[in-house]
Design brief:
By secondary structure, the protein is mainly alpha-helical. It has helices at 3-40, 45-53, 57-73, 84-121, 127-153. It has one domain (3-153): Four Helix Bundle (Hemerythrin (Met), subunit A) (Up-down Bundle). It is 83% helix and 0% strand.
């Protein structure tokens, strides 16, 4: 396997792994808080599920970015030949979604965990912590957007 292709695959892998780590930690934080609340009031499951699921989107963004790289490289068909420079470009283009996914997934999990405690005391105010969590999500979406734009600009 040539170095360019290896670098591109490494970039796709980094996007999935770092986005997945951020999501796993974020969902874990919110899930722990929700489990504590539901141990006292199991009827809150439906309203807390959204707060637990929100930090999982960063992993999806990393997966989507990696999938786009796989399509660009032809890994599901005829594999394209890349120069080392093109491999570096693809790998670097994966960094925005990877790094924003890692950090925002964890931070969104913290916001969601705090939101769980708020909903425990004020169930009617569910949308307030969801909106706060969505503000953190903005940066993961921007990372995804930049990754897509960068990848589209790379000529193979």
């Amino acid at each position: 396997m040539e170095l360019g292709l290896t670098l591109a695959i490494l970039g796709a892998s980094i996007a999935v792994v770092l986005g997945g780590i951020g999501s796993a930690i974020g969902v874990g934080l919110a899930g722990q808080a929700s489990s504590g609340v539901m141990s006292e009031d199991p009827d809150k499951f439906g309203s807390l599920l959204l707060l637990v699921a929100l930090p999982g989107t960063q992993g999806i963004y990393g997966f989507l970015s990696a999938f786009l790289v796989i399509l660009k490289l032809g890994l599901v068909g005829e594999i394209v030949s890349l120069t080392t420079m093109q491999g570096w470009q693809i790998m670097i283009s994966c960094l925005p979604v990877a790094l924003t996914g890692l950090v925002s997934g964890i931070q969104q999990g913290k916001v969601c965990a705090s939101g769980v405690y708020m909903v425990a005391k004020q169930p009617k105010d569910l949308m307030k912590p969801v909106i706060m969590a969505a503000l953190v999500e903005t940066y993961a979406v921007l990372g995804l957007l930049i990754t897509i734009l960068l990848q589209n600009g790379i000529q193979l």
